[in-house]
């Protein structure tokens, strides 16, 4: 069955067919790093994490790129307020962002390009636009001339004349038309700057994503995403720049997430109504936050409420209880020589819920519907366990297999499964490491080396580091 995605560009659901078989190249706009990451960001990044995880689960190799806007008006402004160097400020919040994402179990992007490390590429891109007649130099920077790009508005539906009505050229701005946007900003005194053919300055915001995405993913790729607020002007401008530069279609599928809302308003830094991930993590397990986000389809707005969080917390607890019930039942389970009515019933419930899970995820990554299927399986197993004295191992395995898929796709229960698999084995390895250390202390190197060699033959390599002995799995 094919995956279908809602494409903001065509405004309908389409069958997902990547440009290359088996590979998906995706770019998600990253944060402007001048403050702590909040729950609104988490909503968007968890949503794209699950999209990526699902594509990987369905067998695609995903190459994912996410930029860091590490130089920008907001960063400069904040640095002036705090008296910090803008570069250091950005660096600090970039690290915090990565820590927060890790805590939330968001898989890292394959490449995280930063604007300040791609200035040359950006200059080259702007130069090309100028060469092709889409860009011009004004007194305070280089601008993209919007009216030259005939397809302008194709993503957001905005019309050039509407745009003109709503904007004007401010005093001191060197652009020709109110709708034109900056590709390169000439430096004002005291601002960070880089040399360019147009004098010292820095890139505009939109150009970084056109430059860095095409640099790493090619002139055409499959998915470009971000929050709804990026559709206009950011993504509209990105399209104009890139397609003007290459002369052909750029991104196939545009995906946008709905906002995380607080009392009817978007959670945002500027409104000051945000909760940081750090604050959230003090109160909730990261998996509760993931579940809270995934209980809604990624395109729908999501209201942040205490009740919503409590609901997610209870749901997660219910699922962990089920996992525990299965684990305990496994100990008294038996291999089946025949199935009774209870088994057929449980099997059918698990099978059909699993089908629903895939149908939901195939349908534009509908995690909200998929979640219902997860609870169907949970309920079915619990019901089965109350009905039978000696559960059949095969039924429990079917349920476990399903939860393992959920774990992979939703990014929850990962530790649980890892521990299940590795728990006992790790204990034994640690014991052998301790024995070996003791043998070395007693200068019994022959036996110590034998332990190391035999573990190596089993695919477990010991490494002595200043912090002690560590081990890793290697191919035998
Ligand atoms: P920013 O750091 O503000 O540039 O935002 C980085 C990403 O987070 C963008 O894709 C935004 O659309 C997204 N984002 C910011 N606030 C929210 C929110 N309240 N709900 C969902 N996504 C958001
Ligand atoms: Zn972007």
From TrEMBL:
Binds 1 zinc ion per subunit. Signal peptide: none annotated. GO terms for molecular function: ATP binding; cysteine-tRNA ligase activity; zinc ion binding. Its cofactor is Zn(2+). Its main location: cytoplasm. GO terms for cellular component: cytoplasm. Its EC number is 6.1.1.16. Keywords: Aminoacyl-tRNA synthetase, ATP-binding, Coiled coil, Cytoplasm, Ligase, Metal-binding, Nucleotide-binding, Protein biosynthesis, Zinc. A motif ('KMSKS' region) lies at residues 266-270. Zn(2+) binds at residues 29, 209, 234, 238. One of its GO terms (biological process) is cysteinyl-tRNA aminoacylation. This is Cysteine--tRNA ligase. The lineage of its organism: Archaea, Methanobacteriati, Methanobacteriota, Thermococci, Thermococcales. The gene is cysS.
């Amino acid at each position: 069955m094919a995956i279908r995605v809602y494409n903001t560009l065509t405004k309908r659901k389409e069958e997902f067919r990547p440009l290359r078989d088996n590979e998906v190249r995706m770019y998600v706009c990253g944060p402007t790093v001048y403050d702590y990451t909040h729950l609104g960001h988490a909503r968007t990044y968890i949503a794209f994490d699950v999209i990526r995880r699902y594509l990987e689960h369905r067998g695609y190799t995903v190459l994912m790129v996410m930029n860091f806007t590490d130089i920008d008006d907001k960063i400069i402004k904040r640095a002036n307020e705090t008296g910090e160097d803008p570069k250091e400020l950005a660096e600090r919040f970039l690290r915090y962002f990565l820590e927060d994402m890790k805590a939330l179990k968001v898989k890292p992007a394959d490449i995280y390009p930063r604007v300040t490390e791609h200035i040359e590429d950006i200059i080259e891109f702007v130069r090309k636009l100028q060469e092709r007649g889409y860009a011009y130099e004004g007194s305070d920077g280089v601008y993209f001339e919007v009216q030259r790009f005939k397809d302008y508005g194709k993503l957001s539906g905005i019309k050039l004349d509407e745009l003109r009505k709503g904007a004007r050229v401010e005093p001191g701005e060197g652009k020709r038309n109110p709708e034109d946007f900056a590709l390169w900003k000439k430096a004002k005194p005291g601002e960070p700057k880089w040399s360019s053919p147009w004098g010292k300055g820095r890139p505009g915001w939109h150009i970084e994503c056109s430059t860095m995405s095409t640099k790493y993913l090619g002139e055409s790729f499959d998915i470009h995403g971000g929050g709804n607020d990026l559709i206009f002007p950011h993504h509209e401008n990105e399209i104009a720049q890139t397609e003007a530069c290459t002369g052909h279609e750029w991104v196939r599928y545009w995906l946008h997430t709905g906002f995380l809302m607080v009392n009817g308003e978007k959670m945002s830094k500027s409104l000051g109504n945000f909760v940081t991930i750090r604050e959230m993590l003090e109160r909730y397990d990261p998996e509760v936050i993931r579940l809270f986000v995934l209980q809604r389809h990624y395109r729908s707005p999501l209201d942040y409420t205490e009740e919503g969080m409590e609901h997610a917390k209870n749901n997660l607890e219910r699922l962990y209880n089920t996992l525990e019930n299965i684990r305990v039942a496994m100990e008294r389970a038996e291999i089946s020589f025949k199935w009774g009515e209870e088994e057929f019933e449980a099997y059918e419930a698990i099978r059909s819920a699993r089908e629903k899970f895939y149908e939901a995820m195939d349908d534009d990554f509908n995690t909200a519907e998929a979640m219902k299927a997860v609870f169907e399986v949970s309920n079915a197993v619990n019901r089965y366990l109350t009905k039978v004295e000696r559960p059949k191992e095969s039924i429990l395995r079917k349920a476990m297999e399903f939860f393992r898929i959920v774990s992979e796709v939703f990014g929850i229960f990962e530790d649980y499964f890892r521990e299940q698999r590795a728990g006992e084995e790790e204990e034994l390895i640690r014991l052998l490491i301790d024995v070996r250390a003791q043998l070395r202390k007693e200068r019994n190197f022959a036996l110590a080396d034998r332990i190391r060699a035999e573990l190596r033959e089993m695919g477990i390599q010991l490494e002595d580091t200043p912090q002690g002995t560590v081990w890793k799995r290697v191919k035998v």
